[in-house]
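Friendly challenge for the regulars: who can give me the structure tokens for this chain first? No prize, just bragging rights.
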Amino acid sequence: MKLDIEVICLEEPAFYKLLEDVVKRLKLENNIQEDEYITGEEAMRKLGITSKTTLQKLRDNGSISFTKDTPTMMYNAQSISVYLKSKTLKTF
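First reply, four minutes later:
Bragging rights claimed.
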């Protein structure tokens, strides 16, 4: 029995972008709201950064909101979205 298999290869950034798009679409279609607070790892992923030092700088200079009321530091997802929108370049 012969199986026809088609393999699709993606570079890592394209793969993760595809996953993010799928999750966004599923949340939209199922009316799932984003969590108000997210972990540092999620915040870094959303911001597109890999350095904890950069995350700390954004926190320290007030660019993004956070809370220490939990055992781990949590970041306000809405403040990250606002920060990213403020850094969006407008093209004409």
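The chain is about 50% helix and 10% strand. The longest strand covers residues 74-76. Your move, everyone else.
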